[in-house]
Design a protein that fits this description.
The chain contains 1 helix and 5 strands; from the N terminus they run αβββββ. By secondary structure, it is mostly beta strands. It has one domain: Beta Barrel (OB fold (Dihydrolipoamide Acetyltransferase, E2P)). A 5-stranded antiparallel β-sheet has the order 3-2-1-4-5, with no helix packed on it. A hairpin with a 2-residue loop joins β4 and β5.
């Protein structure tokens, strides 16, 4: 049974399956042209910032470095794609 579960998980990861998650962190950097933000967990080093892609359907006009955000995102094709972004 363990082998079957491991095989299914491996297949999902290899097939580029979309995995949903959420996190709360502090905005460290913003690239408005590329629609990317870098976010760290509270109290974490800037060197550990994670990059998130913001689709055009999500407003990012209010973002600034230092703001705490709650992000709902999906991992698709190796990229963290935001589906919802709140203060």
């Amino acid at each position: 049974m363990k082998n079957i579960a491991a095989g299914v998980i491996g297949l999902l990861l290899v097939s580029g399956a979309v995995l949903a998650a959420d996190m709360t962190g502090e905005v460290q950097g913003i690239d408005r042209q590329k629609r990317l933000i870098q976010v760290t967990l509270p109290g974490d080093c800037v060197c550990n910032a994670v990059t998130y892609e913001i689709p055009t359907t999500v407003d990012m006009g209010w973002l600034s470095p230092g703001v705490t955000v709650k992000i709902m995102y999906e991992v698709a094709n190796g990229m963290n794609v935001v589906s919802k972004l709140n203060k």
